[in-house]
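Following up on my earlier thread - several people asked me to post the actual chain instead of describing it. Fair enough. Here it is, all 93 residues.
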Amino acid sequence: EKNDQLVAKGIHFLSSSAATHWPQSPFEDPAVLSGICEKVVFPNILLRDSDVELFEDNCSEYVRRDMEGADQETRRRSSMDLVKAMGRLNEAK
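Reply from S.P.:
Thanks for posting it. Predicted structure:
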C-alpha cells in the first residue's frame, strides 16, 4: 500500500536507535515507550484490508510470506523488530 516502504524504513530507523547505547537513552523513558507502542507499533501490526484479502484469496501465500520472512519490508515486520529491539534494551538494564 501507499508509503509502506517509507513507514517500514522509519520504523527500522527507530529499531536501530533503540539498539544503540546512549548515555541517556530516550527509549528508557516509560512515557516514550508507551507512546511508541500506542502510536507506532499497535497501528502497524493490525491486520489491514489487504492482508485479509490476501488471506481470503490465497491463504497459502499469506502463510508462506509470514513463515519465510518474505515480508521483511513491511510495517508489521518492522514493528515487530522494533518491539524486539526495545525488549533487548530493557533486558540489559
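The mean pLDDT is 89. That should answer part of your original question.
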